[in-house]
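pasting for the record
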Amino acid sequence: MPLLSMFKALPAVAAAGALAAVSGAGYLLTQQQQLDYRQLRLVWEALHERAVMLALAPHLAHPLPILTPCYKWWEVPYYWAGLKAYDLVAGRRSLNPDGKVVGAVVQDRLGQEPAFEVYARVVMNTTGCFSDQVRHMSQPDAPDIIQPSSGAHVTLPAWYAGTHSNGLIIPKTKDGRVVFMIPFLGHVIAGTTDSRCAVTARPTASSQEVGFILEALQDYLDIQVRPSDVLSTWSGIRPLAADPRAKDTQNTVRDHVIIEESDGMITVSGGKWTTYRRTARLPLLGGAGYSHTLPQQLAQEHGRAAGAGRGSGSGRVVIDEATAAHLAQAYGSRAGRVLQTAEDRGLGSRLVVYAVRHEYCHTPEDFLARRTRLAFLDARAALSALPRVVDIMAAECGWDAARRSAMSAAARDYLRGTMLS
């Protein structure tokens, strides 16, 4: 049986960022083993962002205890030293006659409008894993700069994390990759570090990858890890900035690159979830004015007792404590705006209209996967909710019958791709 070593709590960041915060430790271990200065610099940047996230978005980031199995006595001080170092480091396009990019031919595919030309003094290519495809539209012979890689993830019931809801990092698996398991929005997600992949608009987790994750967990959990417990599977493509000296993607630095192309276009790509805010210098919505007592404030203002005092005809949204906590965690100081939108439309506590009006939600897939994360947490529950989501969005967006049918079919196809076959 392994010795379980508890490291100092690492930050857990809601939604996608949770994976990035945990994976930083793995990159530091890589640097520790290979003495790679580039990895160390990237970890330093990620840890700087950790401090920024904790300060600017306390509703999204919080400490989380992480466990790792150790089989030999020396592994305990080895990993302890590595994590102590982790803390220390914390302190189609239009061209002018000169062959320059001066704009682009664009099309609103959702609105089914005809294509038109847009001109600009500066054109930026920020298309992620598709960056090279865009570059080749102007420079067919340009060398590729993107090395795409993907990592598979599965969602499991919350009880997989045990009564204390600890995270788990398995630093050594049979193929050398790291496997992690962390609590996530009332569930548990488990996944592995990434490997080379082909670029596709709809990446999915293969049955082989899912099986690898479940097999790795089985070696360290006292319960039977069953495929039938998997609630959802998903994958994404990371646009790594290629390093010709690297032998595999795990040793390719996860830093972003900014390139001024010979045709005048500026390409920004690479990076990772841990440092996305730093790359774009983005503010984090919901952080300003956030208080750790916000869940209690929402429950007090919109709870059942408050609703009973106003009467049934007041139009006031009534929520329970769990909903108050979820809104505070997901939206931060903007949670009141969500509830106000629901009250204005008499929609109870539904979030669809808010997402359409204030979060650029254009498709049912947007809402179920990218606004509420339901598709990632429970694919079958998301599929059950789809008809009602389509109804609300159709009313808000003015879809005709053909548009409703197309949107519903596209979302259903997407959700089926997140189910374990």
